[in-house]
Amino acid sequence: MHPYLAEFLGTMLLLLMGVGVVANVSFKESFAYGGGWVVISFGWGLGVFIGVVVAGPYSGAHINPAVTIGLALAGKFAWSEVTPYILAQLGGAATGAWLAWFHFSDMYNRCEDADSIRGTFCTGPAIKNLPKNLASEIIGTFVLMLVVLFIAGASFSTEALPDAKIGLGSLGALPVALLVVGIGMSLGGTTGYAINPARDLAPRLVHALVPIKRKGASNWWYAWVPVAGPLLGSALAAGVYLFVSQ
Predict the structure, then answer these.
(1) Which of 124, 120, 122, 90 lies closest to 104, judged by CA?
(2) Secondary structure in 3-state letters for 192-227
(3) What is the pLDDT of residues 224-237, one digit of tens each?
């Protein structure tokens, strides 16, 4: 499989399962209604597991623009591949979010809580404090990227293995899934832990476009936080990795 297609499919599956688990526990008509944060954290973690299983052998399974840019900053990924990878991730994320909406469309149209509807697609702050919200996304992504770099970086060198597919798949599907579950359970309650620009931006656009009776606003005033925060957190992790590994 071509790496770009692998990134598309991996990110699509991640968002299908991630948006799906939030919808599953949010809508009163669902058998999973009220499942709570633990179910959501494991649902997103297992979504990462599924995405990594599919994409890992072919693209390294970045399935996250922050991971792609962090690896490039650390010298583990070619800059010429960054833009195509990110475009594939955004396309996959939008497709996965659309599929989740289609799957739950009857429940979306019965729901009268616009905040719950929007919350299935994209993140938002538990307490509106944009500097602290940004810091939360930076910290969560810093943990993700630093672990990826220390595991993948210890095993792969772009000079020794120029064709190596480095990414979340370098950790293995189960370890990276547990890493995401851990971030969600320990750090995710402040902003919903996007830790992935594609995970938030593309579904937010889908929320704005799909027909839902009482969906409300897409909160574009907040949309920059789950994009800038993960990118900054990833860049910080790359800088720390380069400093300590010299």
Answers:
(1) 120
(2) CCCCCHHHHHHHHHHHHHCCCCCCCCCCCCCCCHHH
(3) 999 999 999 999 99
Neighbouring C-beta atoms of residue 61, cutoff 10 Å: 30
Output the CA–CA distances (angstroms, integers) from residue 226 to 157, 196, 203, in the order listed. 30, 7, 12
* C-alpha closest to that of 120 among 225, 216, 46: 216
CA 59/CA 215 separation, integer angstroms: 36
Number of domains in the chain: 1
State which residues form the domain around 159: 3-244
- CA–CA separation, 153 and 147 (whole Å): 9
Q: pLDDT-derived band of residue 181, with 50, 70 and 90 as boundaries? A: very high
Burial of 119 (0-12, 13-18, 19+ CB in 10 A): middle
Q: What percent of the chain has pLDDT over 90?
A: 87
CATH of the domain at 151: 1.20.1080.10
- pLDDT tens readout for residues 13-68: 999 999 999 999 999 999 999 999 999 999 999 999 999 999 999 999 999 999 99
